[in-house]
Amino acid sequence: MNQAFIRVSGLKKYYQMGGTTVRALDGVDLEIEPHSFTVVMGPSGSGKSTLLYLLGGLDRATAGEIWVDGQSLNEVDENSLALFRRRTIGFVFQSFNLIPSMTARENVAFPMQFAGVNPRRRDEQADFLLKQVGLGDRALHRPTELSGGQQQRVAIARALVNDPKLILADEPTGNLDTASGAAIMQLLSDLHRSGRTVLVVTHDTRMMRFATRQIYLLDGRVVSEAEYQSAVLEVAQPS
Amino acid sequence: MRFFDLLRLIFGNLSRRKARVALTAIGVVIGTAAVVILVSLAIGLQRNANEQLYGIGDLTQIQVMPSFGEGPVMVGPGGGGGGGGGSSQTKLLTNQALEELRAIPGVEWVSPREFLWSGGMVRYRKLEGWANIIGVDVKDLADLGFETVQGDTALGRTTIVVGPMVANNFYDPRLRPGQEPPPPPDLYDQQIQFIISKWDAQGNETRKNLSLRVTGVLKETRGESDWTIYMPLEQVKALNEWSQNRRINYNKEGYSQVIVKVRDVNQVLDIADQITEMGYQAYTPQSFVQGINNFYIILQVIFGGVGAIALLVAAIGIANTMAMSILERTREIGLMKAVGATNRDVLAIFLGEASGIGFIGGLGGVIIGWLAGQVINVMAVVYLSNQAGQQGGIPPSVAVYTPIWLPVFALVFSTLIGMLSGLYPALRAATMIPVLALKYE
Fold first, then answer.
1. What would the pLDDT profile of A54-112 be if each residue is shown by its tens digit?
2. What pLDDT digit, counting tens, does each position of B311-364 carry?
3. Which of A43, B223, B368, B389 fits B57 for a cystine, CB–CB 3.0-4.6 Å?
């Protein structure tokens, strides 16, 4: 009975910060089906980014279990975790994280170097993906010569380059203007429709339109929509 | 990750920060140049010393002399190299002993030599002189490794080959005080009178007069041969028998000296030891040369060490640059890990960058060190040959000598230093927790 693409149980992540323990995630249980578009909503400090990084194998949990695509992330060594990130995950970050000295094509092709793909194949694949995200004519531009929306599209092309099953996006529209943000959302939605599992962490309520599933996080716990709304409203009420 | 991709990435990363890489590499340039120059200087000094030393003789030859032990000298059948003699026993260089010496592995040839026991006077026109006369057991001195500047090395019954300094031994016996001595004669192809004397019990002198033609003048070796007149062994034996008035049995009395030629210069000391153990006296300049060489090797190590201190300082510079660079590129490291770089990939990239700085610096240092060596050479050789000219010595051919292994070694060493100093920063980069690296501000 393991239909879920992602399964999380009793997930906890604590940080030590200046002598106090911060409970970023405090017992999260989740199941996410394959080919879904999941949006994780939550205020700052709710632990939503922490969840995303744990799912992507960029960090290790304090307690609990994570299964992604049938693989447990708890008991693997650093090397296997790197291979997991390489083969299964495509990351999209709020601040794009493009390498400034590289062209768009080189940035997109960058992950394939670690996979040992030959240079010609890398360039072909990068050009193909850049065309897909609508930047076919920008392959030789450096990040500084591109707009924010274009940079994020390069980053999405890079996330796709190893053909991952799961796209993890951390506030992908956070640094973008409304129009560029909408375009990025559309792009992520297209990826979902092409069969990939997409998980987006965001504040941006417009993202809800594309979601097949919403998860609300408050103080490191998954809560219902009603609970979330009332908590958010409570904060919003002037006292 | 493919090796070529790794190289390209490293090169790309280094060329992103040209100024900083160049400044860091300058430290390595200075260190490597210092190592190359100083070690070259030490090697140059050694070469000079060896050039002077080669005068003491062919380093692959061992002079073997009989041992007369500590007890009373016994000349008899037992002394001829029969068995069981310790070093305290008399060991003579009989024909049997020659066979023993020939049997030592690594010995190329064994050649007995005999001195003329009685004094011999040489006369050329009105000049007289004394000469050291040695009989050798070869038809041609070339077999003993000699070369001539005039004539050839072949020996005959009425011909002799002389050392280049023999002419300087001639003087004019009728020269009055204050008179300018005549210049040394050119002996080549000249007839020389050779007079040996013997006295009987009553003190009556008998003289024997030989007329010999000089058919060869040897090249200078700065050794014994420069002052020696060479004759065939048989002739010296005959003259010795004449002056002693008796037949000499070499199987019983042995030769006064045997030259043992060794195939490989590295075996000389071993074989000399073996000969000593057999009970003979063995003398080789090699032991002396070895001592001198050891001194120069120590000198090379000390000089190299001075240069290495400069390299050590440069290494700290590399470590610093790499540590800074890793701080600045923390997010990039996070990204590399996020897109699937393993810890080993990250380690390789940063170690490669550090090695790259070492290599670039090393390359610069080798080039500068070599060029500086050439400049020093030109200046020093001119100066030293002036000095030598004034003092009548032999001018050195080089002051600084850079053997091919030195730049190669220096380059490998500087690259290795770069790699070592990059180890700590690179390990830190490789073991960063990806999420912390990505969030680093």
1. 999 999 999 999 999 989 998 899 999 999 999 999 999 999 999 999 999 999 999 99
2. 899 999 999 999 999 999 999 999 999 999 999 999 999 999 999 999 999 999
3. B223
A158–B339 CB contact, under 8 Å: yes
Query: Looking at the predicted structure, is the pLDDT value of residue B77 above 60?
Result: no
Taking CA B25 as the corner, what is the angle to CA B22 and CA B27, rounded to the nearest 5 degrees?
125
Nearest-5° angle of CA A137, CA A159, CA A34? 130
Measure Cα distances from A43 to A30, B129, B338 in Å. 19, 115, 24
Q: How far apart (Å, rounded) are the C-alpha atoms in residues B358 and B421? A: 9
Ordered domains of chain A (ranges, CATH):
6-236 (3.40.50.300)
> Do the chains contact at B341 and A116, CB–CB below 8 Å?
no
| CA separation for the pair A86, B338 (Å, rounded) | 8
CA-to-CA dists, residue B54 to A202, B268, B286, angstroms = 85, 15, 10
Say whether B342 and A113 touch across the interface (CB within 8 A).
no
Instruction: Note the pLDDT tens digit of each residue in B358-394.
Output: 999 999 999 999 999 999 888 887 887 777 767 656 6
Q: Do B381 and B399 contact (CB within 8 A), yes or no?
A: yes
| A193 at B interface, C-beta within 8 A | no
First and final C-alpha spacing in chain A = 49
For residues B124-156, one letter each, b for 16 or more C-beta atoms within 10 angstroms of the residue's C-beta and e for the rest, the string is beebbbebbbbbbbbeebeebebebebbebebe
Determine, for residues B1 and A53 on separate chains, whether the beta-carbon distance falls below 8 Å. Answer: no
Interface of A with B in 45-74 (CB under 8 A): 53, 56, 58-59
pLDDT confidence of B297, banded at 50, 70, 90? confident
| Of B15-19, B141-145, B324-328, the least confident | B141-145
Residues of A in contact with B335 (CB under 8 A): 97, 99
Between CA B64 and CA B257 the distance in angstroms is: 6
Enumerate residues 6+ apart whose C-beta is below 8 A from B185.
Answer: B124, B125, B127, B167, B170
How far lies A219's CA from each of A4, A28, A44, A48, A231, in Å?
Answer: 25, 11, 9, 9, 11
Helix segments in B103-249, DSSP class H? 233-244
Chain B residues close to A118, C-beta within 8 Å = 2
User: Rounded distance, CA B315 to CA B362, Å?
Assistant: 12
pLDDT digits (tens, 9 = 90+) for B39-63: 998 888 888 777 766 555 567 888 8
Instruction: Report how far residue B171's alpha carbon sits from residue B181's, in angstroms, rounded to the nearest whole number.
Output: 7
Residue ranges per structural domain of chain B: 3-55+291-439, 60-283
Angle between helices A104-115 and A119-132 (to 10 degrees): 130
In angstroms, what is the C-alpha Rg of chain A?
18
Residue in A56, A45, A29, A50 with CA at minimum distance from that of residue A164: A56
Tell me how close the Cα of B12 comes to any Cα of chain A, in angstroms. Answer: 9
Which own/partner contact pairs does A22-25 have at CB distance under 8 Å and 24+ positions apart?
A: A23/A219, A23/A220, A24/A50, A24/A220, A25/A50, A25/A51, A25/A54, A25/A61, A25/A220
What are the backbone angles phi and psi of residue A195, rounded to the nearest 5°?
A: 110, 0
Mean pLDDT of B225-251: 85
List the structure tokens of B381: 């050789």
Nearest CB to B1 within list A78, A114, A158: A114
Q: How far is CA A121 from CA A136, A160, B3, in A?
A: 16, 15, 17
Q: How far apart are CA A227 and CA B352, in angstroms?
A: 53
The yes/no answer to whether this complex scores an ipTM above 0.85 is yes
